């Protein structure tokens, strides 16, 4: 007899059996002529399926479940293993990685979760049963593990999976069982891992994408559609910011606001009825309002590794600094949340989205009735605005020298961001290969410009924070120790060196972006 055994997976395609013995017996009729069946206990458990809002676990082939019972249990399923953890107390969702109970399961989740929080995405009920397959001698030769998962709201997509597992030395019988089921109409050999099947069933539904932009799309419709997408992103992240779920909600909201402001500035003139001018002040205010909290988030996210840059001080010297950052963030977040919860903001965002929908609908109707030459197109707008913005970038970049004031470098960074947003919005009407190469070069330039600004802003910010800590009048807050202020001074010097390093590397990247090859690529890219 062989000393190795292989299991086989099948999917059951008919109505769920709910692991009823009679229903399973009927389903396994193809093998009951040669084998008898004996049923183990029917097991039922309910679980909550968890993931980040952007599906980071599912995209990495991971399924995280929380099961309530006599004790709270977490289980992490991957294609390679299953990890479980018994929780000392009921968790509160959503939760970031540091809010989960310390365990090997948490360690396995850390990279996939990153700084995002996991929360419920689905609730499910799992029913399972082990069926022993007996030969003519009444000896168990094979075990069939029958599992059915029912996801709330997905009754029509219940997952039923069978695993045929031979006992040692009875691979021949397992092959017989597998062959019989393979020939039956209601069974399919599983073509993907059970984890992948669960991910497909529990995945959050994605929004219907807008109609694809073409070179002939009316310019106003193209701009309004892009702005509507940014508005949807703002709306989708408001609750996460208000509830302080994780810092990426504010980051994503802020990016959507910044993209909106850039698109209004660069192409908002194609919108009708002075719409651009009416909303620009509100988006400028919203952008300014999100800045303090986001800046503090950046410091707090970097705080665990800031101590690595200290040569004289110790990481523990930065503890009072971290406490100060958290107090300041609480104050700034409170101001931001007050605005985001206000009726004025809610009404403004709803009206803005309705206005953009109306622009798209009217533009499409007008275009259907107008001559081709009378309606500006997305292709024409893309060519004009991308080239215009590129020329601004080139003009600013050519003026940069090693002695240029930092304000000139920051102006270049802003223009580069605007060019990047135009390339993102009008990418569908650009030549793909040239577009990809242009974005790649621009991103490298932006990374250097970002390092330059981060170095300056963080160095200056540390000086501001040190002053705040020294001048604090809060009776419950002790004056900062000298060691903390000295450590902050060290960090300020580190960021100043980062700025200088980025500045030195900037010239080479500018030459690459300003060369004739880059210009020809831009021209070849445009519709």
TrEMBL record:
InterPro entries tied to this protein: CHAD_dom, CHAD_dom_sf
Any one Pfam family match given in the protein's UniProt record, by short name: CHAD
Domain of life: Bacteria
Ranges of residues in domain CHAD: 216-519
Name of the protein in its database record: CHAD domain-containing protein
Source species: Antrihabitans spumae
